[in-house]
Amino acid sequence: MEPQPTAVPAPLQVRIADDIRMKIERGDLAPGDSLPTLHELGQQWSCSQNPVRSAIALLKQQGLITGGRGKAPIVRVPPRYVVRYSERHQTEKDLVLAAEAERGKIGTSETELQVSVNELEVRSDYAVVPASDDVAEALRVEIGTPVLRRIWEHYNPAEGRREAWSVSHIPKSLIEANPALFDPNNEPWPGGTQHQLYTVGIEIIQIVDEVTATMPTTATAQLWDLESGVPMLHCRRISIDTLDRFVEISDAEYPADRTKLSFTTPLTRWENTEN
Amino acid sequence: MEPQPTAVPAPLQVRIADDIRMKIERGDLAPGDSLPTLHELGQQWSCSQNPVRSAIALLKQQGLITGGRGKAPIVRVPPRYVVRYSERHQTEKDLVLAAEAERGKIGTSETELQVSVNELEVRSDYAVVPASDDVAEALRVEIGTPVLRRIWEHYNPAEGRREAWSVSHIPKSLIEANPALFDPNNEPWPGGTQHQLYTVGIEIIQIVDEVTATMPTTATAQLWDLESGVPMLHCRRISIDTLDRFVEISDAEYPADRTKLSFTTPLTRWENTEN
DNA sequence: GAGTGGTCTAGACCACTGT
DNA sequence: CAGTGGTCTAGACCACTCC
User: Fold this and answer.
1) B228 min Cα distance to partner chain A (Å)
2) Is B188 contained in some domain?
3) Which of B44, B75, B106 is the last residue of a domain?
4) Burial class (CB in 10 A: 0-12, 13-18, 19+), B70
5) Do both A131 and A219 map to the same domain?
6) Shortest CB distance from B273 goes to which of A203, A268, A272?
7) Which protein residue has its CA closest to C1' of D3?
8) Are residues B148 and B230 both part of a single domain?
9) B88-97, B100-109, B241-250 — which is least confidently predicted?
10) Would you call B203 and A269 a contact, using CB atoms and an 8 Å cutoff?
11) Residue ranges making up the domain that contains A34
12) Most confident of B5-9, B25-29, B142-146, B265-269
């Protein structure tokens, strides 16, 4: 009976990856540092380059390493996060009734960025389409009901990549009183969606955001210029009005390495406490 | 001059992966279906098994495929999402002043699950520790300030995996009036953290959640029994009281394939509209 | 041009799955 | 047991980076 008869040693590629990760976590390798070449690592571990490649691939998949293509792999420098605030909903709402000049400052409709909006190419697409099953379920309407679908893409020509993307769906019947809402030339609308809805007498009183994350497909990754190991955040926003109607659903996507979504939940005060 | 002199064909492994993904997206391969064996795919593409392996690895990394180890790869069946609601904050707060019997129904403090809490092993760890730089910055206190650190781990013995994990930090000075708060034996505390804080005269009026996502490391993935290609959601919750003090920060982690975080933002009504 | 990582072949061994 | 995917070797060719 050997000491640990069933204990199978971890695969070589995993041991190599773990070793490198520990060096990163201990600060032995700082962000921006170059790793040894595959050749050197192969010699250190007395193995061929294949397990070393696999180890590096593993770490890239986990977002710890960047680089390659003729250059040595680099310990990844985490990019700064852009925080996207849900408080903006209230800010936007407050401004709907304010002066026109004030409203303009808020900018476009669904998304804000640290980068000036002027530097971004906003491509929008407006169309009245029949509700898909997914959209219909979320909006609580019949499948095929006409809905206004608005798509925004914020493209950064300087970086050559997409910065934000969202689709919004609004039942056509709720807003057809104001034909201007269907005209993409009115984009960006001062004061955003809340002001647009205000023109047809709709007041949003509750917004529900549902957040999850997935790994991007190959096509998605290159569309966003994502490094490997970076998930996408998905946020479905449901806007509910004073009549408890599901007025709008908006699906937005953000690269998780440079985005933090922030949600503020105000709580009502207890009646009997006055400090 | 050739038609497209610079056009380099995509690597074979990418073409194979794209082909399989398109079959999945078209419904040609349904969730749960088995893929052809590596051998068969190698014959179909007239290549060795290595590029086929790489293609499969790519799709696993993107969360589209599961399986292996003696079995054919399987098109992944997306698990049902557990929705975690932020509205619970208000519910919990409302119950603090309600009858004791009602309070008990809410269960434990930070996390709720679809699974009955009784089926889960909750391991908690209470300790007063000096604030790390990260925690100190978030709580707006000096580094090294004594804070109560509470860690919860909800472990599912049936599934053999972790279901939720969170750390909470509260400055010791804010709550030392009630020594019971430092005793892990009082866990689960009826009514949750809000009730605990109520006993020392603290009323939370605002909660800020910051959400992002990353890919898990190898160790993290096996701790949570995660399939490959599944990101982790990170949620930092900051609780602010009536005196604008940063009372608690709580960092929670959830597997993104089975979790949706839901945040409800109520908006204040416009004064001049009465419908 | 030398060196690097990325891709691919061909073939070996192992652990795991099914029957 | 046969078949499968996972790991690894050894060596080839290519595209890219940097000097």
Assistant:
1) 10
2) yes
3) B75
4) exposed
5) yes
6) A203
7) B70
8) yes
9) B100-109
10) yes
11) 12-75
12) B142-146
